[in-house]
Design a protein that fits this description.
Elements: H1 2-15, H2 33-54, H3 57-64, H4 66-83, H5 88-93, H6 102-118, H7 122-147, H8 168-187, H9 197-221, H10 224-243, H11 253-276, H12 281-285, H13 287-293, H14 300-318, H15 329-335, H16 352-382, H17 387-403, H18 411-428, H19 432-439, H20 445-479, H21 484-497, H22 502-518, H23 528-545, H24 551-561, H25 571-584, H26 589-601, H27 605-618, H28 623-639
Length: 641
């Protein structure tokens, strides 16, 4: 019976690796919620089986292995700083848009513990690597088919590939890590020879095809962070093999050194050429090359990154010890908003290490650095026994590290990273098999405790899924069925059921309100008043349950401004909301413009002028745009009594 359970556990853990392939079409946030809930449910159910089979030997594994111990410390530090942050419940659960609260990190850690226990040596762990690469190959293939205009569910919307991931930057981060895992498999095929030559050839050809698909898809994402991570990691790997050559696929170290030097030269020349010939038609016609060649301090995207990093640093200085808490960065950035940013709303600094600093303070940063050092030391100690494998795995981690400076962490990027970390764990320790045989099958009251915790989590997931489902149905009732009564009922139910994501629900109701205001004639009775009431109530609930955020004042105010008619009774309330928003984020130029719009709709042109003139003094970096608006307003002021 236990043999069957172990087999089920092995296949279940491998099945989890298909997470990047999962998305849906029925719920809002389709590229996040489906795969994250699949990950939650699979990890939780497998963990119950894992505990029933292996007992609690995993506790000793964590105690004995330095990498797992450091990862556990990092997880506990996250929990502690979240408890000391602004809102523990939001930090614990996250939100529907990102779903990267502490509970997601907990599931990642549990998955890592199970994987290194079940696949406890390099030969077994190869299956985990294969599962990751197989998923990456399928994701890449789907993206290439999508690029060709053939779509099963989602079509390409621009030149950048996003496949089943939904975002080119996240796809790039996932593929760049998977690329090095695939390279590891290709160069390590001689370590574990297959039974027949035909199988060996088919196996190697499938890996070569996979790395080709992954390479093309990675290039077509045109994600500069991922491509830069690939380049830096590749250069370091080739440099390491040139300085200290190894034997690869039966080649002598001298041949590997020559090949490494040659490839190193080709990569450097290619990079220099892309910049030197950046104005040529060829480079400009290639989205990836063009975006890479445009990297400079004057590039809009680069300047935006530098600005948001500075905003993040200022937010860190507000709470430098324990930070703001996981998934609470958006409140911190809101208070220090820089009007020169090209986007109005940020929930991350777009820099994963800086996000950790803002969310968890110096305490979290120390725990994070400790984990990095321990992983590095473990790989270094394993290098003499496996120089090829360790150097490639290290390169993959470096690639992740470089790209993480330009984007925030997501489940699809962290999961393959944890696969690499798992390799560092099993290469450091050979204790897992001994612990398994010593504690195998042990079961006591703690198993029931684990079952109870999992049962609660399953209930929480079901309820939260229902909340988003009702919110989605309500939005579709407005946009497709034009049924306000159904929408109101669905929105009320969603708000009542939600354990988290009240801000997301408020945004959904806001969008529904905008749709209704655009064509109120399509709805029976008075569709506007009750929907506006729900919108304001939802935003108030978000403020009460999560924290003060200027968007939760600005959004209802702007909806009020869109109400048609010469006499808008909601203008005073809109003005009041905007005043509250300014108290939270005084440098948001959109709030100033909205207040000026209120004055214009009230016919008070001089007040609108005064508001803009005050903004001209407070926000000199926006003087050009404010000046244009004042010029447009001047005739109205001059003609007013």
């Amino acid at each position: 019976m236990q043999i069957g359970q172990r087999q089920f556990l092995r296949w279940g853990l491998l099945l989890i690796l298909i997470v990047p392939l999962i998305f849906g079409t029925q719920l809002l946030y389709p590229f996040v919620v489906y795969r994250t809930y699949f990950f939650y449910l699979a990890v939780e159910l497998l963990f119950v089986l894992f505990v029933s089979v292996y007992g609690f030997s995993w506790v000793k594994i964590i105690q004995k292995n330095a990498v797992l111990r450091a990862a556990g410390i990092f997880l506990l530090v996250k929990l502690l700083t979240d408890a000391l942050g602004l809102n523990f419940m939001t930090s614990f659960w996250g939100n529907y848009e990102r779903m990267m609260g502490w509970v997601t990190w907990l599931h990642l850690f549990v998955y890592l513990v199970m994987v290194v226990t079940v696949f406890s040596d390099a030969k077994k762990y190869r299956l985990v690597m294969l599962g990751t690469v197989g998923t990456a190959a399928l994701v890449s293939l789907y993206g290439l088919v999508q690029r060709a205009g053939i779509a099963f569910q989602i079509r390409a919307v621009d030149d950048r590939l996003f496949s089943t991931i939904g975002n080119p930057a996240f796809l790039g981060g996932f593929l760049v890590v998977a690329w090095f895992i695939c390279l590891w498999l290709i160069l390590k095929t001689t370590d574990y020879r297959l039974q027949t030559t035909a199988k060996t050839i088919a196996y190697r050809l499938s890996l070569i095809a996979s790395i080709i698909f992954i390479s093309i898809a990675l290039y077509l994402t045109a994600t500069r962070g991922a491509l830069l991570g690939f380049a830096v990691a590749g250069l370091l790997l080739l440099l390491a093999w040139a300085v200290k050559p190894v034997s690869v696929l039966g080649l002598k170290p001298t041949a590997v050194r020559i090949a490494s030097v040659g490839l190193l030269g080709i990569m450097l020349l290619s990079m220099v050429g892309a910049f030197a010939f950046r104005n040529t038609s060829f480079v400009q016609s290639q989205n990836s090359l063009r975006r890479l060649s445009e990297i400079s301090l004057t590039d809009f995207s680069v300047r935006s990154r530098l600005l948001i990093w500075n905003v993040g640093w200022q937010a860190f200085l507000d709470r430098p010890i324990t930070g703001w808490g996981e998934q609470m960065i958006f409140l911190a950035l809101d208070r220090h908003f820089d009007p020169r940013l090209g986007e109005p709303w940020f929930d991350s600094t777009h820099n994963a290490p800086l996000d950790i600093l803002v969310a968890h303070g110096m305490v979290g940063a120390v725990a994070y650095l400790y984990l990095i050092v321990i992983v590095g030391v473990s790989l270094w100690r394993s290098y003499p026994g496996d120089p090829v494998g360790v150097s490639i795995i290290t390169a993959g981690i470096v690639a992740y590290g470089v790209q993480s400076f330009f984007i925030f962490d997501t489940l699809v990027v962290i999961l393959p990273l944890f696969v690499l970390v798992g390799y560092a764990i099993i290469m450091r320790d050979s204790e897992f098999v001994l612990l398994e045989s010593r504690e195998n099958g042990r079961s006591d009251w703690r198993v029931w405790v684990v079952g109870a915790v999992v049962a609660f989590l399953l209930y929480a997931h079901l309820r939260s899924w229902q909340a988003l489902s009702y919110a989605t149905d309500g939005y579709r009732a407005v946009t497709q069925n034009h049924d306000i009564n159904q929408a109101l009922g669905d929105f009320d139910t969603a708000s009542r059921l939600a354990y988290f994501g009240q801000g997301n629900i408020a945004g959904i109701i806001r969008n529904a309100s905008i749709v209704v205001l655009g064509r109120p004639d399509r709805y029976q009775g008075d569709p506007i008043s009750p929907l506006l009431q729900r919108m304001v109530s939802a935003h108030q609930k978000a403020r009460e349950e999560i924290g003060l955020y200027s968007q939760w004042f600005i959004d209802p105010a702007k909806v009020y401004l869109d109400i048609p008619g010469s006499t808008n009774p909601y203008l005073p309330r809109a003005d009041s909301f905007l005043d509250e928003a300014l108290k939270i984020s005084p440098r948001r130029i959109d709030i100033i413009y909205a207040k000026a719009q209120v004055a214009l709709q009230q016919g008070d042109f001089r007040r609108a002028q005064t508001i803009l003139e005050s903004a001209l003094i407070a926000l000199p970096e926006q003087s050009a745009d404010i000046g244009k608006r004042l010029e447009q307003l001047k005739p109205l002021v001059d003609s007013s009594p």
